[in-house]
Amino acid sequence: MSDKLKPQPTASTANTSPAESADAALHHIVDGFL
Q1: Mean pLDDT of 3-29
Q2: Distance CA 8, CA 5 (A)
Q3: Which 8-state DSSP code applies to residue 34?
Q4: How far apart are alpha carbons 29 and 10 in whole angstroms?
Q5: What is the pTM of this model?
Q6: Residues 8, 19: Cα–Cα separation, whole Å
Q7: Most-buried pick from 18, 23, 31, 32 (CB within 10 A)?
């Protein structure tokens, strides 16, 4: 799971949708933990 959360090299080149997706996922995970 942590591997998927970590930023991938492909996401670095196009940090528009992938970056937002990772951010949203992280926020959802944090919300779940809280």
Answers
A1: 65
A2: 9
A3: -
A4: 22
A5: 0.39
A6: 9
A7: 18
In whole angstroms, what is the distance from residue 25 CA to residue 17 CA?
Answer: 12
First to last CA, the chain: 19
Unique residue bearing structure tokens 């090299």: 9
CA distance 34 to 13: 32
Give residue 33's pLDDT.
Answer: 76
> Coil, strand or helix: which one is 6?
coil
CA distance 11 to 4: 11
Q: Which two tokens stand for residue 25?
A: 């996922």
